[in-house]
Each structure stands twice: as C-alpha cells, then as structure tokens.
User: Fold DUF779 domain-containing protein from Paenactinomyces guangxiensis.
Amino acid sequence: MERVKRVLVTDEARKVIKQLREKNGDLMFHQSGGCCDGSSPMCFKKGQFRVGSSDVLLGEIDGCPFYMSRSQFEYWQHTQITVDVTKGRGASFSLEIPLGVRFLIHSRLYTQEEREHLEPVQFGHK
Assistant:
C-alpha cells in the first residue's frame, strides 16, 4: 500500500486555488484553530504567514504547503482532511474572501490499515 495523504483538496477548491495563484503567486495554507474562523484553513501568499516550531506541515494541496498548529494537529491527527470551498464570507484574512467564498474542511477517520501507511509530518518550518 502506498503512503496515505493526510490532506486532500476537492476539485472546486482546486479551481479557487488556481485563481488565487494566478493573482498572488505561490500560496500556502494554515489552520490555527484560534480566533476568527476557528478551524477554517486560511490561504496566504507563500511566506506571508510566519510558520514556527509550533506548526506541523501535513503535506501539500495542489502544490501549496498545508500547515496546522500543533495543538490542532493533536486533535486532527487521526483524520484525513479534505479542503473544500463554499459560498459565503469567512471572518478571516484569507485570500479567497474577496471572491465571496471561503475554504473549509471535511474530515474522516483513518482505517487501521491507513494509519499504518500515513505520510510523515514535519514539525516546524520546512
């Protein structure tokens, strides 16, 4: 069995990422679980959000690194996350807000077999 990805992206979210990349260049995602939209993933120009030792790199979605705060990772580490998009305005500084959409996540628990083949995570800045 090949490595199981920890974070996926829907086709609709991929379209928004493409649109944002055309306007802003390289992108990154971070999910903090803090104020504003809470556990909604936020999209930034790559390097605009300072990633530190308390962040976890889960993987990439459509070529964009996806980070999560360590405290959120402790909660979500048993689930596969899928980044999606929906109409509406989030209460954050994420790049998609002017488009009238916001990113959100869906999750599901890994199976026992999947847990044994998870992609490794990286703690701290890449």
Q: What stands out?
A: The two ends are 26 Å apart (CA to CA). The chain has one domain: 7-119. The helical segments are 11-24, 70-76, 112-115.
